[in-house]
Design goal:
One of its GO terms (molecular function) is methyltransferase activity. The protein has two domains: about 130 residues, 3-Layer(aba) Sandwich (Cobalt-precorrin-4 Transmethylase, domain 1), CATH 3.40.1010; about 140 residues, Tetrapyrrole methylase, C-terminal domain (Methyltransferase, Cobalt-precorrin-4 Transmethylase, Domain 2), CATH 3.30.950. Helix content is about 25%, strand content about 20%. The protein contains seven helices and 14 strands. The longest helix has 14 residues.
């Protein structure tokens, strides 16, 4: 473990920045400002592409020397590529840079607290006894919220998110949470759907009617900039039909929203929406 130094006014700040789906118009102004002004930005290749869309990060044609470049105001910024295999090392490097007085923007897709980067950095800070490193979390729009906005009003009542990734926990725990959420009547948004999504749907079907609405959505808020070959999509079906849409479950950018007994499908002249009234309210209740 590293030794702990006393916090001084010369220390920088480690910002864990949620950029939502990644496109400039879907970021908060605070996130954009922090990234633009940070001394160092830790960011994956995919999110670098998103952040170049409006100049939050420089174009690839800019004069970048070994990850460093000079901004128009004469100050220098450095880009470090984030990857799954380098997270621990980059966290430790970020702590040291903050101690040296740098402001670091560690970029997380979606919201840092929803299967994002914040837990890693706080866990590492605790393990490294980095009590001298100021850390601030900048929130972002997570996929559940971005997808729900496209779908209408499906999350207007109580809801929860469940990750199907078994990297840090076994299927038994995932199944227990799914079953509890289904019994309790929560709207359920599934993340990491490339992992056993059919299995998850079958668990929910044991506790929920087959005709409740389900939405499968890809690259929420990314329009044509995501990984999905068909760009941003959403498919509405019934729970008992959800596993027949394998062609719509495209990977990391796919989420599945499972409605409850109060969720309905409403159509206007152009498309279908999902609506879950708060507490089952109708028009006369407002």
């Amino acid at each position: 473990m590293s030794t702990t130094a006393e916090t001084t006014s010369d220390a920088g700040t480690l910002y864990v920045v949620g950029i939502g789906p990644g496109l400039p118009e879907a970021m908060t102004q605070q996130a954009k400002t922090v990234i633009e002004t940070a001394d160092c930005v830790i960011v994956s290749n995919l999110y670098q592409e998103f952040l170049r869309a409006d100049g939050t990060l420089p174009e690839t044609t800019a004069d970048i020397d070994d990850g460093k470049y000079t901004r128009p105001d004469g100050t220098e910024q450095e880009l470090l590529r984030s990857s799954m295999g380098s997270q621990v090392e980059l966290a430790i490097e970020a702590f040291e840079r903050v101690r040296e007085g740098q402001d670091i923007a560690h970029v997380s897709g979606g919201d840092p607290n929803v299967y994002g980067k914040s837990d890693l950095l706080f866990t590492m800070a605790r393990a490294e006894e980095a009590t001298d490193v100021p850390i601030e979390v900048i929130p972002g729009v997570t996929a559940a919220l971005g997808g729900a906005a496209n779908l209408g009003a499906p999350l207007s009542n109580d809801f929860c998110t469940v990750s199907l990734s078994d990297k840090w926990r076994g299927w038994a725990e995932i199944e227990e949470k799914l079953r509890a959420a289904a019994i309790a009547g929560f709207i359920i948004v599934l993340y990491n759907c490339w992992r056993d999504y059919e299995r998850a749907i079958e668990v929910i079907r044991e506790e929920r009617a087959d005709d409740v609405p389900v939405a499968i959505f890809n690259d929420a808020g990314r329009e044509t900039a995501g990984r999905n070959l068909d760009d941003e999509t959403h498919t509405i079906c019934q729970l008992d039909e959800a596993t027949t849409h394998d062609d719509k479950v495209g990977g990391m950018g796919t989420s599945i929203l499972v409605g409850n007994h109060e969720t309905t499908v409403w159509r206007n002249d152009t498309r279908a929406f999902l609506v879950t009234p708060r507490g089952g309210r109708d028009v006369e209740d407002f």
